[in-house]
Amino acid sequence: MNTRVLRRACRAEWTKLRTEPGAWWLLLGVVAVTVAVGAAASGTARTVADPARTALAGVTVGQAVVAVLAVLGVGGEYSTGMIQLSLVAVPARATVLAAKAAVLSALVAVSGGVAVLGSLLAGHLLLPGAPALTDGSSLRAAVGSVLYLVLVALLALGVAFAIRDGGAASGAVLALLYLFPLLAHVVTDPWLQRQLARLGPMPAGLAVQATTDLRHLPIGPWPGLGVLALWAAAALAVGEALLRRRDA
Predict the structure, then answer these.
(1) Residue 223 sits in which domain range?
(2) How many domains are there within the chain?
């Protein structure tokens, strides 16, 4: 991949995204929703086994906004036909996908970092006995939550390129994220519940937020985030493959 072409493609993607009014509202929404839900969870909790995870509860809602943000650019380009111009300017499909992924990841990392920091600060103020923000396990939960949001964005980006329709892609990503936790509540077999928690992108990925009782988790914090990374990589691979096979 030509790095010079990639830099130019990234500048073009940045221009397209920053001139999209909805994108900035969605980025603000990630922060607002994540902090608000996390603060509410911290403020209403009576007994808390894992203060950091409780403070970061808003990530489960903020991820939906991240998914919509990721789908917005791709779905909008397909609906207006601008994707044709993008591919004429940058014929290499992998470069187009990489540029979108790089710009999206940077923006989500910044907004996610603000959201996670705000959630932990709120939790530190509202939760009795909350650990310090510099505590090793809390720091891992914070960094892991930001990475989680970035990986959700990349997962949604790959799905958007595969499906091409913004509404359908958003629905597919949200269904994929929330389906495994819902199924885990429906099934009664403990072994099956554990497997759903180990394989689902959302339950496995959010294991990175756990700071207590790690030995009883279905999957460890970093391995769980690795499962989400595999889902995101698979979605991007499918999206790129279909982009190569189709004209746009």
Answers:
(1) 3-245
(2) 1
pLDDT in tens, 29-77: 999 999 999 999 988 877 778 888 999 999 999 999 999 999 988 888 8
The one-letter amino acid at 184: A
Q: How many residues are present in the chain?
A: 248
163/173 Cα distance (integer angstroms): 11
Could you report the per-residue pLDDT of 174-216, keeping only the tens digit for each? Answer: 999 999 999 989 998 999 999 999 999 999 999 999 998 888 8
Average pLDDT over residues 147-170: 95
Q: What is the pTM of this model?
A: 0.94
- DSSP letter string, 16-85: HHHT-HHHHHHHHHHHHHHHHHHHHHHHH-SS-S-HHHHHTTTHHHHHHHHHHHHHHHHHHHHHHTHHHH
Site of tokens 């509540």: 185
In one-letter notation, the amino acid at residue 22 is: G
Structural tokens at position 193: 């519940």
